[in-house]
Design goal:
six-stranded mixed beta sheet, 161 residues, alpha+beta, Helix Hairpins
Length: 161
């Protein structure tokens, strides 16, 4: 059994860890900007400028991750959805076989993978703007997913939580 609230906490934890790494990188880049001479002696002395570009890019990524955390912390997961909706965990696999992939439909963090239950394969986060998610939204267990959206082979929605 897949515990969605456990998966959501794992996603939040990964975003928080990434945010810590970004914060460290931002502090280093910002300090390099401040430590560089303000007057360039030649046109080739660009370390300070490059450090400032890096610091600005990292600051943007930090803002994006903070936004993700706000969204994830207020997300209400559906209890027992009949059809795929935001917050659903979906298992896909061949008809009559076990689920070969598990996806967690969230508004942000697409591509992130979190460990499933003990011994289970990882669960990949997908967002509503991906082709796979668009083909899944509104489907019920037992419905087939077209091959173009299921990585080349037709899959069946086997698990919906």
């Amino acid at each position: 059994m897949i515990d969605k609230s456990h998966l959501l906490r794992a996603v939040i934890r990964q975003v928080e860890e990434g945010l810590e790494r970004l914060g460290t990188g931002y502090a280093v880049a910002r300090q390099a900007t401040l430590d560089s001479p303000h007057v360039m002696k030649s046109k080739r002395e660009v370390a300070g400028i490059e450090a400032s570009y890096l610091a600005n890019a990292l600051a943007g990524q930090i803002e994006e991750r903070l936004s993700w955390l706000r969204i994830l912390r207020t997300l209400r997961l559906p209890e027992a959805p009949v059809r795929v909706v935001l917050g659903s965990v979906v298992g896909l696999g061949p008809e009559g076989g076990p689920a070969t992939q598990h996806n967690f439909l969230l508004p942000v963090c697409g591509g992130l993978e979190v460990g499933g239950e003990k011994g289970a394969s990882p669960v990949r986060v997908i967002t509503p703007d991906t082709p796979l998610a668009r083909s899944l939204i509104g489907k019920a267990a037992g419905e087939e997913i077209p091959p173009s959206h299921a990585q080349g082979t037709p899959l069946v929605l086997l698990l919906l939580r």
